[in-house]
Amino acid sequence: MSKILRVSDEAYSKLTQITKNTGLSNQDVIDKALENLERETFLKQANEAYAAMKKDPKQWQEHLEEIAVWEATLSDGLEDE
Asked: What is the C-alpha separation between 29 and 14, in angstroms, rounded?
């Protein structure tokens, strides 16, 4: 479903330039930009949460212990090919 969206003149100019350079439609460029922003936001929040966990010695120790448990699953006895 299409919607009308108001953007600044500068944003429209950038969008037009990107569509000319890539051959993508306006909608595809906007979809890709939103997807990239969503990923960037997710990774930033994950990094912030990880940094906060690392500052708490108890949480950090629990995290390290959990990693050790999961790393044990890699010892499946199969040789590398």
From this structure: 10
